[in-house]
Amino acid sequence: MAGKIYLASGSPRRRELLQQIGVQFEVIAASVEEKIKSGETGLAYVQRLALEKAQAGLAQVQREKCSLAPVLGADTLGILDNKILEKPKDANDAAEILRSLSGRTHQVITAVALASPEKIATAYSITQVSFRSITENEIKEYWLTGEPRDKAGGYAIQGLGAVFVKSIQGSYSNVVGLPIEICCELLSQFDISWWHSSAKKQMHLNWMWKKHERRNFN
Known about the structure:
Largest sheet: 7 strands, mixed
Mean pLDDT: 90
Order of helices and strands: EHEHEEHEEHEHHH
Radius of gyration: 19 Å
CATH topology: Maf protein
Distance between the termini: 42 Å
Strand content: 15-25%
Helix content: 40-55%
Low-confidence stretches: none
């Protein structure tokens, strides 16, 4: 297996996760309307958006006559009490979201789609995330960090929001924004490799640099 993909997402977290597993990719813009339809479930919503992003990205690649490669689209959302957890509008909205999550378990769903001119493959992952009880002061202080402002559900598990998480059941990378175990299954269907040699070289350089830093620190 070899080759590259296009990532139809501006999310830095999805870029980092693909880099982590050594996938070769290029980022492209894929604008789709992110609005839930009447009667649409959260799962159906993220599946539709992931597919629309992949298809929009593929159409752009073909339109601009770029080198053809599969396009990956993804969408993530949180659900509590069958209600979709959106990005907070302001400090009050963020506080309301975090109060609702405090001491409770919610779901995080990510749908992934990979599209080429020949075929389309889709999959999704669901993770149960349990929060400890959060104080009002923590809610206020967390908002002031700026982290929750652009995060669906009002927190980032890979960032400062990790202190709220008591436990998870399922994929951690799913909560970050891209379930890498699902991605690998889809990539294999398109003969796309991970652990690419250039990525492994960069991982080795990163390891050597960290080793150098530890040696100097000691």
